[in-house]
Design brief:
322 residues; alpha/beta; Rossmann fold; Beta-Lactamase; 2 domains; 5-stranded parallel β-sheet; 11 strands; 20% strand; elongated
Length: 322
């Protein structure tokens, strides 16, 4: 767990460091800064898992301290460190987005670690609920499928590590790729088509469960793995997209980090595959409806043209007889 401690009192900072050192069940990487300006600079340069924030700093006081840090790092959980004089500010900060607050007078190692863990969990839960609501709204409002993919890619990035996200759809024994998001150049661009046989998607179709590969440098089970490894990827997870109990495609995540997808990550991703599958099915139905309407319009125009031609032929024949 990487912690950014923003605290100008050296004694309080040393106490926090000593408390974390007493915990043997978890490793902590503590980065300590003493001012708001240094905190904002550090947040720009180094990602962290959680922020421990003292509201009374040399260059900022009270709720303004929280507001400035929160504006710079809205996705990072913040736990306020309070003295007796700023507890009211801490409560206000919680109403505005902080996850918790701890009194410097009462904190002890187990309480500190528990507060950090709970704050991270609550923040993740908030993000999951937000993403669920966004996807539900996007799907319900009949937005373009690309809009749904974009919202999903941005939202899930805050919950699960990835460098590439693709969707593969089964179409007559072949796989068609849809690139949802990729930070890296990839061979599997939009609408690339490859045979289904021997692919991770085929494995998922047969087994009807996710396929997880922990480290391509140690083991490769599919030809795709070699390509992904060549593109700098180290691990992957492929999740089934279901329709009426059958798998019609997969949602695929690749990461540059080995062993990026554990049970927790799989649980989070499985929570959203149903919504993505619904969005894809809706998009297919919409495209099929548009295709049928176009066919009917063409058929109607052809009938109208024939009727007009027949009417004109009949009129010319009548004039000739006359």
């Amino acid at each position: 767990m990487k912690i950014l401690l923003v605290e100008d009192n050296q004694g309080d900072a040393r106490l926090i460091r000593e408390m974390l050192a007493e915990v043997t069940t978890e490793q902590f990487d503590l980065v300590h800064v003493e001012s708001l300006s240094d905190a904002l600079k550090t947040l720009t340069q180094e990602p962290c898992d959680i922020i421990l924030l003292d509201l009374g700093l040399p260059d900022s006081q009270g709720i303004d301290t929280f507001n400035n840090v929160y504006e710079r790092a809205k996705m990072v959980p913040i736990v306020i460190l309070t003295g007796l004089s700023d507890e009211a500010f801490a409560i206000t900060a919680m109403r505005q987005g902080a996850q918790d607050y701890l009194s410097k007078n009462d904190v002890e190692p187990n309480l500190l670690v528990r507060a950090l863990r709970y704050a991270i969990e609550r923040k993740r839960l908030e993000e999951r609920m937000t993403l669920t609501a966004q996807l539900t709204k996007a799907i319900g409002s009949s937005q373009e499928i690309s809009d749904v993919y974009e919202k999903f890619a941005k939202g899930i990035k805050r919950l699960v590590d990835y460098d590439q996200v693709t969707i593969t759809l089964v179409e007559e024994g072949m796989l068609r790729f849809v690139t949802v998001s990729s930070d890296e150049a990839t061979e599997f661009v939009d609408d690339a088509v490859v045979p289904l046989s021997g692919t991770p998607t085929e494995w998922v179709i047969v087994n009807k469960r996710p396929n997880v590969e922990k480290d391509f440098s140690k083991e490769m089970n599919f030809p795709f793995d070699e390509i992904n490894f060549g593109e700098g990827m180290r691990s992957a997870i492929r999740l089934p997209l279901f329709s009426k109990g059958e798998v019609f495609g997969t949602l695929n995540f690749n990461s540059r980090n080995p062993d990026a997808y554990g049970e927790r990550d799989q649980e989070i991703l499985e929570e959203f595959t149903g919504q993505i599958a619904t969005a894809i099915k809706n998009d297919r139905l919409l495209k099929e409806a548009k295709r049928r309407i176009q066919e009917l319009e063409i058929a109607y125009r052809q009938l109208a043209d024939k009727a007009a031609a027949s009417a004109k032929g009949g009129q010319e024949s009548s004039e000739t007889k006359t």
